[in-house]
Write a structure and sequence with these properties.
about 400 residues; alpha+beta; 3-stranded antiparallel β-sheet; about 35% helix; globular
Length: about 400
């Protein structure tokens, strides 16, 4: 059976149509959850990692329209000129509201946004036009590139909305497919003898620009966990005073610990010796078999020093995931790696210039996927990237023997 992520990257027009109907139904269900939890205009306090839900809903429609209906070079795929002159939007002034590359993040809370009814109507107008175009699109990778891009963009925002619901402690679990990482099923570790491995997209179909640049690497022997580190393995580090031991932390990590951390993982409290975790506004006992989650890179590194372990590189992670398949358990939480996010050899930015290129700034790569990631996005070559201090994303880690 073809994995959903592989299927999406090779999806023909019919498959794209089905996938985006499913994604849109999930999006609108989650937006309705926000409307119920945040009445009177969906108020969300400003935070650098958040976006107002009403703005984000309109932005999703704008992105699809900008790269499809308004893009005269939409059939050109990655060769399209991103700055080509475009037709007007179906929504007057849409560029001034939703163009994320030009609308400063801090201003998104103060824009004269259309109300939810008008925003929904705009999304439907855009989708109707996209469907008409899709029906006329040949089934080749270049012609379908922007249809696939708009779909994965929407799926990414779905996951971001799930982060935000947890951040805001909103009880909208009924609108979310899965609310926490599933338990791990594999203990222990496995050793790889290493060898040659091809990094980068090696076949046809859709790929993100940071995955391009197919190149051969030699992987040294390494030993890695079969699954992400669980609470059963992580909490002894907390209970033994790891958050107070400066020697376990990098200088950047200790500065973050003193500035931003409560001395325990985000969303956790200990009551009468029992650990509980806030899960979308409700406190639940910690299941020790579930992966530790909402951890920063700094916390992952400190645990590794405490345990005498290290983080895998992204090359090691991908090598193990592709070589071992199901024996290498992943997909419950995003996994921090020891590798900085950098371009592969021969990198060429795709038309959506701001997707990768601005973020080659030393931030770490995360691999895998989380429980909130759409199945269509769970690809072993997918490279995620966030700054090392982020704890709002559903991230954990696995470790390697030193």
């Amino acid at each position: 059976m073809v994995h959903p992520a592989t299927a999406l990257r090779h999806a023909d027009p019919a498959a794209i149509s089905r996938a985006r109907r499913t994604a849109r139904a999930r999006l609108l269900r989650l937006f309705e959850g926000y409307e119920q939890a945040l009445p009177h205009g969906l108020p969300v306090p400003y935070a650098p990692e958040l976006n107002p839900p009403l703005w984000e809903l309109g932005h999703i429609g704008w992105f699809e329209e900008f790269w499809l209906a308004r893009n005269p070079q939409r059939l050109g795929g990655t060769a399209a000129d991103p700055d080509v002159a475009r037709a007007d939007s179906a929504l007057r002034g849409a560029d001034a509201l939703y163009h994320s590359s030009k609308v400063a993040h801090t201003t998104r809370w103060h824009l004269p946004l259309p109300d939810a009814t008008r925003t929904r109507r705009y999304l439907q107008q855009v989708r109707d036009r996209s469907d008409t175009l899709l029906a006329q699109t040949p089934a080749d990778d270049s012609a379908l590139y922007f249809h696939r891009l708009a779909l994965v963009h929407e799926l990414m925002h779905l996951e971001a909305w799930t982060y935000m619901a947890q951040h805001l402690a909103l009880d909208i679990a009924s609108a979310i497919d899965v609310v926490q990482p599933p338990p791990t099923t594999r203990d222990g570790e496995q050793t790889f003898e290493g060898g040659s491995h091809v990094m980068g997209q090696a076949d046809s179909g859709f790929a993100f620009d940071n995955e391009g640049g197919e190149h051969l690497v030699e992987v040294d022997p390494f030993t890695v966990d079969n699954a992400p580190v669980t609470w059963a393995r992580y909490l002894p580090f907390v209970e033994s005073g790891g958050y107070g031991d400066e020697s376990l932390w990098s200088s950047e990590g200790w500065a973050w610990r003193k500035r931003s951390s409560t001395g325990r993982p985000r969303y956790l409290i200990q009551d009468d010796g029992l650990w509980q975790r806030a899960c979308f506004g409700r406190w639940e006992p910690i299941d020790p078999t579930r992966p530790a989650v909402n951890l920063s890179l700094h916390e992952a590194q400190a645990w590794c020093r405490w345990a005498g372990r290290r983080l895998p590189t992204e090359t090691e992670w991908e090598f193990a995931a592709i070589q071992q398949g199901g024996a290498f358990e992943w997909g419950q939480v995003w996994e921090w790696t020891a590798s900085p996010f950098s371009p592969y050899p021969g990198f060429v930015a795709h038309p959506y210039r701001d997707y990768s290129q601005p973020w080659f700034d030393g931030r770490p790569v995360l691999r895998g996927a989380s429980f909130a990631t759409a199945p269509e996005m769970k690809h072993p070559r997918y490279r995620n990237y966030f700054t090392a201090d982020r704890t709002d994303i559903f991230a954990g880690f696995r470790s390697c023997a030193c």
